[in-house]
Amino acid sequence: MTEHESTIDLNPAADEIIDDSMAVDDAPAVKRKGRGFASTAESRVSNKYDSYDRMDEDSTVQVSTNAQRSVEGWIVVVTGVHEEADEEAVTEKFAEYGEIKNLHLNLDRRTGYVKGYALIEYETYKEAKTAIDSANNTQFYEQTIHVDFTFVRPPEGSGRQPDRRDSRRRQRSASPGKRW
Amino acid sequence: MGADDEFYVRYYSGHTGRYGHEFLEFEFRGDGMCRYANNSQYRNDSLIRKEMHLSPTMLKELKRIIEDSEIMKEDDNQWPRKNVVGRQELEIRFGNEHISFETAKLQSLGEVQESNDPDGLRAFYYLVQDLKCLIFSLISLHFKIKPI
């Protein structure tokens, strides 16, 4: 009995489906490497559960882009942030476009320097959009930074229809060891 | 979309023990979809499942982080095997390369240094931390919850 079988089967129906046509998903040119392919470990996370929490559409805000609002505001991502930039400098630059509600300037776990991206929360769409329009492709610490919304709305066709959405991929998890 | 553009990342860390199957898992897809699931029976008995869609700029940054880690050059054949403490899996499809690495849970950098492949395992160890750091930020900002 494998480790996998001893765990709770989150998707019992899948075991009854045998579909060898799904067995090989990689093109022949794809190079595979790793013990994970031989293991009977669980299938992809998306196969396992029927539904995930996501942000509801906010119909009160009319925006022309496909940006997605977060719970308390709009999250902007800045990439190309110099490794020696600090929170103070990022705050100083981006407070110009609106009040910063939250700033995540994550560090590289190996070096301890800035990883290269910043996530900034503004309360309003207008502030976030101004930051993007004003700071995208500008210089910061002698590097070009890119500024954009972090989250977008789900593409058409990936709405809240867990059964239909998952039915095809669910079949892929049927044959153990042939996860892709 | 050609094979060169294929992109997928999945990380799993978990074990089965006194509190059942406890795990943390997340994935990023090439179309921007990002999913996170965390099941801990201890103190928090509910399964957390979150789904987000990332902009192309955010996705590009994720790809850069993975490329910089050089993880695709590594191989897990010398890494510690999964054990009763649990296992970690990291699956990445990046263009024409597809890795699916499996190893034990690593408690400290010391374990990495003492392994048979410290350089490779270090790349894995730090990439996993950087990915976790990213997804925890994304979830806490988007949903205003503490993911773990």
From TrEMBL, chain A:
<keyword id="KW-0963">Cytoplasm</keyword>
<dbReference type="GO" id="GO:0005737">
    <property type="term" value="C:cytoplasm"/>
</dbReference>
<keyword id="KW-0810">Translation regulation</keyword>
<feature type="compositionally biased region" description="Basic residues">
    <location>
        <begin position="167"/>
        <end position="180"/>
    </location>
</feature>
<dbReference type="InterPro" id="IPR000504">
    <property type="entry name" value="RRM_dom"/>
</dbReference>
<dbReference type="GO" id="GO:0005634">
    <property type="term" value="C:nucleus"/>
</dbReference>
<keyword id="KW-0508">mRNA splicing</keyword>
<dbReference type="GO" id="GO:0006397">
    <property type="term" value="P:mRNA processing"/>
</dbReference>
<dbReference type="GO" id="GO:0008380">
    <property type="term" value="P:RNA splicing"/>
</dbReference>
<feature type="region of interest" description="Disordered">
    <location>
        <begin position="152"/>
        <end position="180"/>
    </location>
</feature>
<keyword id="KW-0507">mRNA processing</keyword>
<keyword id="KW-0813">Transport</keyword>
<feature type="domain" description="RRM">
    <location>
        <begin position="74"/>
        <end position="152"/>
    </location>
</feature>
<dbReference type="InterPro" id="IPR033744">
    <property type="entry name" value="RRM_RBM8"/>
</dbReference>
<dbReference type="InterPro" id="IPR012677">
    <property type="entry name" value="Nucleotide-bd_a/b_plait_sf"/>
</dbReference>
<keyword id="KW-0539">Nucleus</keyword>
<dbReference type="GO" id="GO:0003729">
    <property type="term" value="F:mRNA binding"/>
</dbReference>
<keyword id="KW-0694">RNA-binding</keyword>
<protein>
    <recommendedName>
        <fullName>RNA-binding protein 8A</fullName>
    </recommendedName>
</protein>
<dbReference type="GO" id="GO:0006417">
    <property type="term" value="P:regulation of translation"/>
</dbReference>
<dbReference type="InterPro" id="IPR008111">
    <property type="entry name" value="RNA-bd_8"/>
</dbReference>
<dbReference type="InterPro" id="IPR035979">
    <property type="entry name" value="RBD_domain_sf"/>
</dbReference>
Automatic annotation (TrEMBL), chain B:
<dbReference type="GO" id="GO:0035145">
    <property type="term" value="C:exon-exon junction complex"/>
</dbReference>
<dbReference type="Pfam" id="PF02792">
    <property type="entry name" value="Mago_nashi"/>
</dbReference>
<keyword id="KW-0539">Nucleus</keyword>
<protein>
    <recommendedName>
        <fullName>Mago nashi protein</fullName>
    </recommendedName>
</protein>
<dbReference type="InterPro" id="IPR004023">
    <property type="entry name" value="Mago_nashi"/>
</dbReference>
<comment type="similarity">
    <text>Belongs to the mago nashi family.</text>
</comment>
<dbReference type="GO" id="GO:0008380">
    <property type="term" value="P:RNA splicing"/>
</dbReference>
<dbReference type="InterPro" id="IPR036605">
    <property type="entry name" value="Mago_nashi_sf"/>
</dbReference>
